[in-house]
Amino acid sequence: MNETERSRMLGHMDIKKLVIKLSIPAIAAMAFNALYNLVDTFFVARGASQIAIGALSIAYPIQMIVLAIGLMIGIGSSSIFSRAYGREDKAAMRSAVNNAVIFNLVVSIIISIIAYIFIDELLVLFGATASNIGYARDYLSVIIFALVPFSMSIVFNNLTRAEGRPNVAMFSMIIGAVINIILDPIFIFDWGLGLGVSGAAWATGIAKSASFIYVFYMAMRPESSLTLHLKTIYKVNFKVIYEMIIIGLPSFVRVSLGGVLIIIVNNLINYYATTDPAMYISIYGVINRLMRFTLMPGFGLVQGLVPIVGFNFGAMFYERLKDAIVFTVKLLFGYFFFIFLMVLLFAEPLFGIFSPEEDALFIAEGARAFRIIAAGFAFITFQVLMSSVYQAMGYPIRAFIIALSRRFILFIPFAFLLTHFMGIEGIWWTFFVADIFAGTIAFIMFLGEMKKFNRLITA
């Protein structure tokens, strides 16, 4: 599909078919992306121990920070790119790609160097205990070297979706996930290389690098609109980078605060778990990965919506814009509610998969915690949707408010308040309460935008 055909598709194809067409590859890509960590968790539990799962959770905030940087730059640059695409501004399209690459490269390298130098101090800050810090160090000391290609693949996945080629992003994630699944047992178990937890990191690092190589190669092919000028890449346009940061900042806040929340929760567990805090950190680690895997298809649905919103907003096709958003809301709410029902029914079997020792306490406590958290899943609908819609339209402040409401304004004070009165169970209820309040705020903003679109359509 050439550039003209992609432009016609974004601006004129039946809106429901278009949402489905762009969302299916994005859903697959997000699900496979989440599969990285789920596969690592499963094989680490089987090849090392149940306690080693907590080590992955302790090391995870660094990955989330780099993911946040990649998303900030990727979503910011893709918003600039898609709006320029809608108005056929070739120069702005090229500038978005060039500046995204150089900015992401510099920032992710700096983060990797800092993490390598202060690895032990960071692990202690992240909540490591004497029983799991060794596992965490083994994992993080290897995964650091894959942070740059991981971040770059996130940037190019967003850009390829912005130009209407979601299949490229999907195959990039599938390639990485398949390689990770194949390499994990080979690198972890004694019948293979026997590297244990560090083997999981090596498998993930190789997989993420392969994912980046594929998406970069496809982005640089002649049929792509993502032109990268290597001879002038050092010419940084700080105005474009500033706009990129402002637009992508809500995503950075949402994801990086997710890393901050992991750190806070790990430390709260260490404080309030009267017996075996390492087990509860492992429970939280499993829940985190199960949530990412089960909810990511919903996030992928929204990712498929983003280029449609950006293009049609830039082209001032407001009726198509409204129809796309309303249709996505219905699909998204239905999916999140379905996941809640599945957690209610199958929480114990899910936790049993990650307990080779068949620890009854681990499975029972984990299932109970997961059900409490899942009760708020349906309220995530409007948070995810409106944050992404505002970013695609170039309204970062509104997106920032939504992102900040759950991850900072609400979660942190509720976490300290509820754990004070309820102990460790207060942690799980904090997720539920924060989702209800943040979802309500986002729903009110959604209704306001629908009224505005109605006025623009009838004007």
Explain what you see.
The chain has 459 residues and is mostly helical. The chain is 84% helix and 0% strand. The protein has one domain (3-458). It is built from 16 helices and no strands. Helix 3 runs antiparallel to helix 10 (238-272), helix 8 (166-188) packs antiparallel against helix 9 and helix 12 (318-353) packs antiparallel against helix 13 (360-374). The two termini are 35 Å apart. The model has no long low-confidence stretch (mean pLDDT 84).
Q: How is the secondary structure organized here?
A:
Layout (H helix, E strand, L loop, with lengths): L2 H10 L2 H33 L2 H37 L3 H28 L1 H7 L7 H11 L3 H16 L3 H23 L8 H23 L18 H35 L4 H38 L3 H36 L6 H15 L5 H14 L2 H27 L2 H34 L1
Helix pairs in contact: 2-3, 2-8, 2-9, 2-11, 2-12, 3-4, 3-6, 3-7, 3-10, 3-11, 4-7, 4-10, 5-6, 6-9, 7-8, 7-9, 8-9, 10-11, 10-14, 10-15, 11-12, 11-13, 11-14, 12-13, 12-14, 12-16, 13-16, 14-15, 14-16, 15-16
